[in-house]
Each structure stands twice: as structure tokens, then as C-alpha cells.
Amino acid sequence: MNTQKPALEHINTGFGSSLKVLQHSGHDMVNQASWHIHPEVELVYINKGQGKVHIGNHLSYFNRSQLLLLGANLPHHGFSDRLTTKGSETIVQFKPDFFGEHFLSLPEMKSINILLERAKKGVKFHRETKKIVGPMFEELYKSEGLKRIILLLEILSELTSSKDYTILNADGYALEISPQDSNKIDLIYKHINKNFERPISLGEIANKASMTVPAFCRYFKKTTGKTFTKLVNEYRIVHATKLLLESNSSITDISYECGFNNFSHFNKLFKEFTGTSASQYRKETKLVVQ
Questions:
Q1: What angle do the packed helices 278-286 and 228-246 form, to 10 degrees?
Q2: Residues sharing a CB contact under 8 Å with residue 156, sequence separation 6 or more, in sequence order
Q3: What is the rounded distance in angstroms from the CA atom of residue 79 to the CA atom of residue 61?
């Protein structure tokens, strides 16, 4: 996992443009952005690739394609660890009000306003929506000027009518931190990143954050919406999904390598987190054509 220091990312749209559109291909080196925030809304479409989805308090791992919508100031990591030779990652970033205050107040924009409100919790769209919207990202990347704005509106319009999506912060907690809080969050997440493969006591992490254990527990639950132990276990499970896909180690060895000292506990948590057993997960992901 990436342990670079996160930052408040400054996004430069460039002269004469009100939104930023980037695209990485399978031939590019994919740079993993660290834990960061920015005031722009972000749309991400990956047509073929693998990576980790870490948005707010959500952690998961994907093996094929992804279509994500992130609200402003929603903390996240970069996504694609690896793109296939024919894969690409298209990123669209824009301020929530870049259309203009009066434009957004039009009755016709009500559904897009609802979509942007939903984006504050992070949204993942599924197969049927990706089939429709995916090709539009390629066209958006190649377009310029007014045509690019029109295409973005068309994409957002399609997303507003989709029922094929999941709210990533499913517990209803949208993790939105101010830039002033990012250093403390960075310190905590960086320590988890470096040490999740071994036991991390509450005393150890509270000391790292210069807090008492009770104060740390309150702060962490308020900020992430979950306990420290739960988040560390999620890191371990996410890492386990990666190892199940990329290594030939036994599932037992992988469980211990990820920091679990009890195999039955690993199996229980893995199924709770992914919805399937580790053996079934490996079987299914091995069938994916890279």
C-alpha cells in the first residue's frame, strides 16, 4: 500500500477550461496518489485494470472495470494499480458550482443536484451503467471547448437516471475532512499502511497521534465512522484479496502474512467483508482474463 504523505491537491484546469480531463493508458506508469482531498468533484472510469478503491471509510479491491463518482473534499487514494495493455483510466475533475449558481438552480438541473449530493458519500456504478457511459468518457477525453461541457452534462444525465449503483459509505457516514485535519489523518493512515501486517495496539496508535487512548478512540470513530480495529482488519482483508489474486501462496499463509493470527477469524472476516469465502474469491478472480 502507498505510504506517501497526502496533501490538499491543487487542480489546475488549464487556461480557457473549467474542468480537467486526464487519461492514463496501459502503456503509462500509473502513479498512485496518496490519501488526499480536493474541492473538485471527481469522475473516474477505468475500462480494464486492477486496483484498490479507498474512498472515505470504504475499502475494496477490483479486477476489471470501475466507474466512480466522488464528491468535493471526500478523501481518497488513487485507484488503478495496474492497467491492462488495452486498459485506460479517465479522470474528470470539476468544481461543484462550475456550471454557475443560476444554472444549477434551474428546474431541469434538479436531478444533477441530487446526484452531486449523493456523490458526497462516494458512488460506484455497475455493469449496465458502465456499458452506456464508458464509451462516452473516451469521447469526452478527445473533445474540447463547449462540446466537452455538453458531453459531461450528458454523462451526468445518464448517471442521474441509473438505478445500477452502490453508495460506498453505506453506513451513511460521509468522511469529509478539512485540510487542517489532513496531517493527523495522514499520520494515522500512514502508520496503518506500514504496520497492518503486525498487531497494532491502541496505545501505540494513540501515542503516534499524541492523544490518550479514550480521546483517540472518540476522534477515530467520529472521523472514520468505525473503530480502529475494524479499519485495520479491513486493510488486512484488502491486502489479502490482492495476494489471493497475484500470488500462489496458500490461503492459510496469506492470512498470517496479512496480520491475522487466527485462520478461522480470517475466514469469518473475509466473508463478512467480501461476501464470499477466500477460496471462492481466488477461484473467481483467477477466471478473469487480464
A1: 40
A2: 112, 115
A3: 9
Q: What is the pLDDT of residues 97-121, one digit of tens each?
A: 887 778 878 898 899 999 998 998 8
Give CA–CA dist 215/208, Å, rounded.
13
Q: Whole-number mean pLDDT of the chain?
A: 81
DSSP alpha helix (H) spans, the chain: 101-104, 110-118, 127-142, 145-161, 182-195, 202-208, 213-224, 228-246, 251-257, 263-274, 278-286
Statement: residue 190 has pLDDT above 50 = yes
**With b meaning 16 or more CB within 10 Å and e meaning fewer, what string describes 163-188?**
ebbebbbeeebbbbbeeeebebbbeb
**What does the pLDDT look like over 157-174, one tens digit per residue?**
999 999 999 988 755 444
Q: What angle in degrees, to the nearest 10, is found between the helix axes of 228-246 and 213-224? A: 60
The rounded distance, in Å, linking the Cα atoms of 137 and 81 is: 20
Closest of 19, 179, 169, 12 to residue 92, by C-alpha? 19
**CA 230 – CA 228 distance, rounded (Å):** 5
Q: Which of 76, 83, 80, 82 is closest to 123 using CA atoms?
A: 76
Q: Which whole-number Å values give the CA distances from 67 to 101, 163, 202, 211, in the listed order? A: 27, 14, 36, 38
Residues 91 and 96: their CA atoms lie apart, in Å, by 15
What is the grid cell recorded at 21? 480531463
* Verdict on whether the full-model pTM lies above 0.70: no
Crossing angle for the helix pair 228-246 and 263-274, nearest 10 degrees?
90
Alpha-carbon distances of 288 from 48, 50, 53, 77, 125, rounded to whole Å: 11, 11, 18, 24, 19
8 Å CB contact between 264 and 237: no
DSSP 6: P
